[in-house]
Design brief:
2 domains; alpha/beta; binds ligand LLP; 433 residues; Lyase, Ornithine Decarboxylase, Chain A, domain 1; 12 helices
Length: 433
C-alpha cells in the first residue's frame, strides 16, 4: 500500500485531461471511438495512440484563423514524423518543414511536392544542401554567412539557383524552457539583423542564390503572444529595409512555437494569436509562412503504459511503469509536465503523491515527479497525455528497449502506422567480429 494523501491535505487532486477526441466513456478512456484498453491489450505497452481527427481539427483551426491573409502552413515534422502523420497534414494542403536529410527523405516518401518543402537546420551538411537543391525544395533556410557561401558554391556547381531565406535571430525572449528557446542573441540559431541586412545587400556576391524569404523561429511551447509580436515587429523593420534596398521578398516565415495546454492551463487561442499578428502581417506584401509542430499534434497523442509495481522508498511513493525515458524523454530533459491518468477510472481509489518512473537504470528516468495521482494496481494501464508531439520522435533504444507501436485512430477505425520493434530490429546492422 502506498502512502495516501492525508485527508486534511486533500485538495481536489484528480482531474482528467480530456478534449474533443480523447476522453472517457463509461469510465474507460477512448481515442475517438476506439477503446484504449482494447488497443493496449492487442498491441502491448508502451504504445502511442493518436487521434487523426484532432490533428485535422488543429490544422483547420490554424488555417481558418489566417484565411483572410496570404499565408501557408508548413508542418514542422520534427514534432511527429510518422509518415501517416505527415501525410495527414499534406493531404490537407500543408507544406512540410524538414530539419535534416532524413526528415527530407521521410517527407518526400509521403508524396509531398518538393515545392512545398522547406529545408531547415543550423548545421546543414554539404550532402543535405545538395539533396535540397536536387529535389528542388521551395527554399533553404540559411543560418550563417558561411552556409550561404557554401550554398552559393554548391548551387553554382550544380548549375542551379538556390532559393534561400535567411534565418534571423531577433533577440527576443520567448520565456520558455531554456533548451527550447531559440530567439535570443545568445542562442546558436540564425544571424543577427545587422548581419542579415548586410548579406541581403551583398546579394550580387552570391550569383547562384535568389533570396526569396526572411525567417525566424523564436522557440517552442511559447505561452504568450507578446514575444511573437515583438519578433514580428523587429523582422518587419528588416523586411522594409531590404525592400528599400530594392529586393522584394516572397516569404516572411514566422516559424512555429505556438504553445499548447499540458495541464488544463489557459494558453492563447490561435484566433487570439491571429488577431494580434494579422495587423502586422497586413503591412507586408508577401506570403506569411507558419511552421507549427506541437500545436498540430501534441494533444492528439497519448502514451499508454502498464503499471508494474508500487513501492515506497524512504518517504516516497513510486509507481514503476513499463514506459521509460527512452519512450518519452520530455520529463527527464525539460522537467516537462505530462498529465498521467488511468485508462479505467475507479471511484473508490485513494489519492497519493508519487513519482511515476520507468525501468531504466537512471534516476532521471521518470514520467512524473511528486505527482498527485490516484492509486493504481499492478497490471492496470495509465495514459501519459499530450504525447503527440516530441514523443515518439525523441525515443531511443537505450537499455536495448524496443520502441512501441504507433496507432492512428480515425473515428471507429484504427491503423497500425508503425509496429512495435522486434528484437531483430535492435541488432539489424550489427556484427560480432
Ligand atoms: N520551425 C523550426 C525552425 C523549429 O526549430 C521548430 C522546433 C519548429 C518550427 C516547431 O516548433 P513547435 O511549433 O513545435 O513549437 N523537443 C522539444 C521541442 C523542440 C522544438 C525544436 N524546434 C520539446 O519536446 O519540447
Amino acid at each position: 500500500m502506498l502512502k495516501q494523501v492525508q485527508h486534511d491535505q486533500k485538495k481536489k487532486i484528480m482531474h482528467y485531461f480530456e478534449n474533443e477526441h480523447i476522453g472517457y466513456k463509461n469510465n474507460q478512456l477512448y481515442v475517438e471511438e476506439i477503446n484504449v484498453n482494447e488497443l493496449a491489450k492487442e498491441f502491448e505497452t508502451p504504445l502511442y495512440i493518436y487521434s487523426k481527427n484532432h490533428f485535422i481539427n488543429q490544422y483547420k483551426e490554424f488555417e481558418n484563423a489566417f484565411k483572410n491573409i496570404n499565408h501557408k502552413i508548413f508542418y514542422a515534422m520534427k514534432a511527429n514524423f510518422n509518415l501517416s502523420v505527415i501525410s495527414t497534414f499534406v493531404k490537407l494542403g500543408s507544406g512540410v518543414d524538414a530539419n535534416s536529410e532524413g526528415e527530407l527523405y521521410r517527407a518526400l516518401k509521403t508524396g509531398v511536392d518538393p515545392s512545398k518543402v522547406i529545408l531547415t537546420s543550423v548545421g546543414k551538411t554539404k550532402n543535405e544542401i545538395k539533396l535540397g537543391l536536387e529535389k528542388n525544395v521551395l527554399m533553404i533556410k540559411a543560418e550563417s554567412e558561411e552556409e550561404i557561401e557554401l550554398i552559393n558554391k554548391i548551387a553554382g556547381g550544380m548549375n542551379k539557383t538556390a532559393r534561400v531565406a535567411i534565418r534571423v535571430n531577433p533577440d527576443v525572449d520567448a520565456k520558455t524552457h531554456p533548451y527550447i528557446s531559440t530567439g535570443l542573441s545568445s542562442n546558436k540559431f540564425g544571424v543577427d539583423s545587422k548581419t542579415a541586412l548586410s548579406i541581403y545587400k551583398r546579394r550580387k556576391d552570391f550569383p547562384h542564390i535568389q533570396f526569396t524569404g526572411i525567417d525566424m523561429h523564436i522557440g517552442s511551447q511559447i505561452t504568450s503572444i507578446d514575444p511573437f509580436v515583438e519578433a514580428v515587429q523587429k523582422l518587419s523593420e528588416l523586411y522594409f529595409e531590404i525592400e528599400k534596398d530594392g529586393l522584394k521578398l516572397k516569404h516572411f516565415d514566422v516559424g512555429g512555437g505556438m504553445g499548447v495546454s499540458y495541464n488544463s492551463e489557459k494558453i492563447f487561442s490561435i484566433n487570439e494569436f491571429a488577431e494580434r499578428t494579422i495587423p502586422l502581417f497586413k503591412n507586408l506584401d508577401c506570403e506569411i509562412i507558419f511552421e507549427p509542430g506541437r500545436f498540430l499534434t501534441a494533444n492528439g497523442g497519448i502514451l499508454v503504459t502498464e503499471v508494474l509495481y508500487n513501492k515506497i522508498n524512504g518517504n516516497k511513493n513510486f509507481i514503476v511503469v513499463d514506459a521509460a525515458m527512452n519512450d518519452l524523454l520530455r520529463p527527464s530533459i525539460y522537467h516537462a509536465y505530462h498529465h498521467i491518468q488511468p485508462i479505467q477510472k475507479f471511484d473508490d481509489r485513494n489519492e497519493i503523491v508519487a513519482d511515476v518512473v520507468g525501468p531504466i537504470c537512471e534516476s532521471g528516468d521518470y514520467l512524473a515527479r511528486d505527482r498527485e495521482i490516484s492509486e493504481s494496481k499492478s497490471g492496470e494501464l495509465l495514459a501519459v497525455m499530450s504525447a503527440g508531439a516530441y514523443g515518439m520522435v525523441m525515443t531511443s533504444n537505450y537499455n536495448a528497449r524496443r520502441r512501441g507501436a504507433e496507432i492512428l485512430v480515425d473515428g471507429n477505425k484504427y491503423h497500425v502506422i508503425r509496429s512495435r520493434e522486434t528484437f531483430d530490429h535492435l541488432i539489424w546492422d550489427e556484427k560480432i567480429v
